[in-house]
Every structure is written in C-alpha cells, then in structure tokens.
Specification:
The complex is a heterodimer of chains A (251) and B (435).
Chain A (H helix, E strand, L loop, with lengths): L2 E12 L2 E12 L3 E5 L6 H8 L9 E9 L2 E2 L6 H7 E4 L10 H12 L5 H14 L3 H4 L12 H13 L5 E5 L7 H14 L4 E5 L3 H7 L2 E6 L2 E7 H6 L4 H7 L5
Parallel strand pairs in A: 3-8, 3-9, 6-7, 7-8
Antiparallel strand pairs in A: 1-2, 1-4, 4-5, 9-10
Helix pairs in contact in A: 3-4, 3-6, 4-6, 6-7
Chain B lengths: L15 H43 L4 E10 L2 H4 L7 H5 L3 H12 L6 H8 L6 H11 L7 E7 L2 H8 L15 H12 L3 E5 L18 H32 L4 H13 L4 H15 L7 H25 L3 H9 L4 H29 L3 H5 L20 H9 L4 H31 L5
Antiparallel strand pairs in B: 1-2, 1-3
Helix pairs in contact in B: 1-17, 4-6, 9-12, 9-14, 9-16, 11-12, 12-14, 13-14, 14-17, 16-17
The chains are: A alpha/beta (251), B mainly alpha (435).
Bound molecules: adenosine-5'-diphosphate and magnesium ion (MG).
Amino acid sequence: MEMKFTTKNVNVYYGDAQAINNVSLDIPDRAVMAMIGPSGCGKSTYLRCLNRMNDTIPIARVDGDIRLDGHDIHSEIDVVHLRARVGMVFQKPNPFPKSIFDNIAYGPKLHGIATKKSDLEAIVEESLQKAGLWNEVKDRLGSPGTGLSGGQQQRLCIARAIAVSPEVILMDEPCSALDPIATAKIEELIDELRQNYCIAIVTHSMQQAARVSQRTAFFHLGDLVESGPTTEIFTNPKDQRTQDYITGRFG
Amino acid sequence: MTDTSILSKTDYHTSEQAERLLKKRYRSEARFIFYGRLAIICALLILVTLLSSIFLQGYTSFYQHMAILEFDLKQELVDPQNTGDPEVIAKADYRTIVNNMLREKFPDVTVRRDRKALKDIISSGSDLFVRSAVMADLSLVGTRATIAVPLSDDADSVFKGFIDRTLPEDERRVKDNQLGWLDQLSEEGRIESRFNMTFFQVGDSREPELAGIWGAVVGSALTLVVTLLISFPLGVATAIYLEEFAPKNRWTDLIEVNINNLAAVPSIVFGLLGLAVFLNFFGLPRSAPLVGGLVLALMTLPTIIIASRASLKAVPPSIREGGLGVGASHVQTVFHHVLPLAMPGMMTGTIIGMAQALGETAPLLMIGMVAFIVDVPTGITSPATVLPVQIFIWADSPERAFVAKTGGAIMVLLSFLVIMNLIAVMLRRRFERRW
Ligand SMILES: Nc1ncnc2c1ncn2[C@@H]1O[C@H](COP(=O)(O)OP(=O)(O)O)[C@@H](O)[C@H]1O
Ligand SMILES: [Mg+2]
C-alpha cells in the first residue's frame, strides 16, 4: 500500500498542555483511514496537523516530521498549496453564505483551475455529481447553500473540497450533526471517493469506522495506541486499551 | 434509606408549603413585570414631554406671514438704459423701490420716526425678495408687480399670537401705530401665512425672518462627509488588522485598552486637540468643515473600531475554516468571507458613530465653527457652521423668533438622526445573520 502521508514523532501543544504525544502514523493513498478514540484524545488535533489548520490557533504549537508524498509540509510545501491539495470537511457543515454554485466555484476560481464560465460550470457539475448532490440541487444552483438540509450541506462541503482537485480529503466527524439516513449517504459517498483520494476520517462511532475504513488508528489521551487494518483492530486488538474501547468498556 | 430522608418526601410538591412558595414566586414575577412597565411608561412620558415641548416651541418657525404688496418697478430705477441685461437688473436699487412702495401705500405717514416704525413692519430683507422676483421674471421690469415679502419678526409675531395687545404700549415690542398698519394690511387681505421656504434655503442672519438652516445643513453634511471618508476606512482597516492579523501580545492589549479609553474621552478634549494640532500647527482654516470633520473623525474612530471588531468577532470561526480549508490565504479568507458578513454590523456601527458626530457641538466650538456665518458653505474649506452649533447660536439669541428657530432646527436635527438610525436598523434587518 502506497503511503500518502507519513508522520513521525508529532507533538502538539496548546499553550503548556500537550494534546498529542509522539504520534507516528502513515496514511495510505486511495484508502480510508479512520481515527477513533474517546472524546478529547486528540483525534481532531492530529487531523488538523495534516493541513496545518492548527496554525490558525495562536496558542497551538506543532512539532514533528509530517510529509506529504515525501515532502515536509512545514518547510517544503507552501501552506496555501498544502490546503488546496489536502481538502477538509468539518464537523459542522459550513457552507459559505453564498449560492450553491458560488460555494463550489470559489475554490477553482481562487486557484485559477478554471476561469471560463463553461469550465466552472463543468467543475461545479462534476463535483456535485461526485458528492451525490447533483440531482437534488441542479435546478437551484443559484439558491443559497445555507438553505439546504444538514446532510445536503455536508455533501455540498464535500463537493466544495473535491472541486479544487485535492489529493487528500480530511473529515472531522462529518456525520456527527446528521441523521442516520444522511449519515448513510455520506458513508456511501466516502466509499466511492476512496477510489480516487486519500481519505482520513475522524469518527466517534466505531461502527462507522468499521463500515467505511480500511485502516484504523486508535488514539487514547494523546497517544496513538495502535493502528493497522480495520478488520484486525476490531477483531484482534493488541493493546488492552483498544480492546476495552471497542468492547465498550470506556469511551 | 429510611423514611426520614429528606428526599423521600414525595408529597412535598402537593403540600401547602410548596403551594405558598409557588404563589410567592408568581407574585414576585408579577411585581417585576409591573416595575418594568412602569419604567417604560415613565421613559415614554419624558420622551413625549420633550418632543412635544420642542414641537410646540418650534413649529411656528416652519411658517411665516408674508405681506403681498404692489411694487412699482419703474424702468428708470431698475434698468434705466433698458438693456434687459440681468446683471444690470440685479444691481438695481430695490431698497428705494421698497421705500417708494411704503410711501405710496401709506401716504399719510410723514413723520420721520413713524416712517422708521412703518419700515420696521416688513422685513429689512424685503428688497432681496423683490429682486429675486424680478430676476425670476424679467418681464416685470417697468410694470407694477404684486410680490410677497416677509413681515419683520415682530410683525410676524403679532399674527402668530405672541404679542399681547392688552399690554401697555411701552411694554410691547409692536407699537399701536404699527398694529394699526398691520391690521389695515390684514383687512385688505394682504397678509398671508405661508410655508417658510426661506428657512430651508439660506444660511444664518441677524434677522430671524431671514435666517435659515440650509447653511448649517450643508455645513453638517460637508463635515460628516469628511468624517466618514476618514473614519470609516481607517476604523475598518484598524479593526480588521487588530482582530484578524495582529499578534496577541502586550502591545496589542495596550492598543486595545487605549482604543476603548478613547471612546470615553470627553469630546471637548478632541476639540482642544483639533485646535492645537490642525489649526495652530498645520494652519488649516478656522471654522471649516475640513477641520470639523477631522476632529469628529478622531472622535468617531473608536466607536467604529469597537463596532467593527465586535462584528468581526461575531462571524463564526467555521466560515474562516471553510475558506482556509479550500486553500484561500488568510487575507483572502478575511476579505472574501469574513468581511462581507461583518459589513452590515460595521455599517451599523458607522452610522451610529456618524449620528453621534452629527449631534456633536463642543469640539466644534473649539475650532471656531461657532462663528456667525451667513453664506451657505461651498466647500470643505469655506467657513461653515453645523446644525447643533446653529441651535446653540440661536438658543443664545434674545429675539422671540429665534426661540422658535431653535425649536425648528432641533426638529430638523432630530429628523436627520431618526433617519440615520432607521437606516442602521434597516441594514441590520436586511442583512441579518445568514448562517
Ligand atoms: N483550541 C484549543 N485550545 C486549547 N486546547 C485545545 C484546543 N483544541 C483542543 N484542545 C485540547 O486538546 C485535546 C484534544 O482535543 P481534540 O483534538 O479536539 O480531541 P478529539 O477531537 O479527539 O475529541 C483536548 O484535551 C482539548 O481540550
Ligand atoms: Mg474532535
């Protein structure tokens, strides 16, 4: 399996408090990597290291070696390029308060991927197709993205991320604000997207991790306890803490 | 657990004690609501008293009694060479024409003192009204024309009912003979009450019937334009920098504290600053909207900065993350996503700041905008006054008619303030949070 991200000895501090301790983890390409663990164990923090979103938190400090395709994301890749290559979908759907069309066209316009209107239209359609939203919104591309239902908004955000042609998509509990039906749709979508992208997803639902991921990493109190093929983690965990967590003894 | 445990008294909520407590709770709630309503009623009463006293004091300034008189616009007086040239006609001696009219209308007034009293019943600016009537219709030259001229402020007061005719003559501003002439004109149907256009067309004057607020309105507008052009971009830029880009350290904390303190500095201090810096050091012209606007901009800046920062803060972080997440740079995220959402709040803050500036008097007194200025200002460097200062000047004048002008000007100022606040409210409604 080819690795997209390789991270070594990652530590993250919020002020004096350390949130992530020496995490070394590789994330495979064209597969879904799930990160599970009890609340507050640092899953989101780790995920946000991968597109340097922690830079926006003044008190956060990240050290360690994080490489995308072998290039150090702190020294060899510009942060704006990094975020274009590594898209992100957040816990709460956050479409821009603009039209559906503009939500998706914004990124490609920004990066100069498309400037002609026809190209933009093609990108918008393809992104929405890939995000499984096209049929629902094709007649109202001009209406505000914030007017969609929660599940639709989240798929719009996925389409928005896809539209800038990223290599990686990071998802931080993308279904936690959604109902079971919308969740099922997104999970299906994630399964399709894995053909073309490297996907890292944080989830608090072990069932979800089991359903969508090929590899799983279990975090606990800022430590990476263990990681490996999802089936192995769920059927034959090596660490007692993992076992306790997946059998529901804590979490 | 035994039955004596306090938690096992399951019948508590149906007991008499609980009932009493509940009633007491409702009573105190009712009392609280009553006090609230009382406070609102008191506030409303005070407001109504204030507004109605201003209205009662000021509404008479919006109309004016005019005398409709027949003037002999003799060719040899107006345009002796019969040139028809407006410039010649404009320079004619209309004062003589007015005097001739009075002599003709009241031929038996011959004593010098009486003639002076007669002249005093119509406005000393009557010749200007005759002139503008002629200038508006040049064909009047050489004819006898019926033209309306304003009564003097004292004569106007007679018809507005401010002069008590039962007082002894020497305690009255309008004498018996003047009353006689006015009554005669009135019986002939030559006195007419009209909407006071002059009030909205001209600047200040020593004669109340010729004084208007247009000069002050234009002065206020020019001043506010300067204020807006300086304080809005500067304030918004400062707010964006401090809120979105500045590092959080001791220096920025200090700046923040100082901005908040500046908002509390008495406005007269800004006036002194303006006097010392803009007038004495930079030598900018006195009484000019430019300087007034600069001073008011200093005063408004903290308001705008604070409001702008608050509305930037109110934009949810998820919008910023969305922008950054698709690879927008920090600046792009701020300008494409955060600023548009914060803009209505910023504009509301700015309008409120402008409304404050519009009502500000003290700092402008310091930089000489309190001078008596007749001409309507034509630019930001020409001498001007502003509405609140005009009110201050008129309130200080002894004539009865200026008291009414004061009320009228206050009403105009208040309407501008109400309009500005309405715009602020509308902006807020229109662009209410859309996320
Ligand atoms: N912005 C922040 N400032 C300070 N501490 C934070 C911040 N974000 C997260 N933390 C702390 O870091 C730890 C890990 O948080 P997080 O990564 O959000 O956990 P998870 O996503 O696994 O629930 C927690 O103890 C949390 O309190
Ligand atoms: Mg989290």
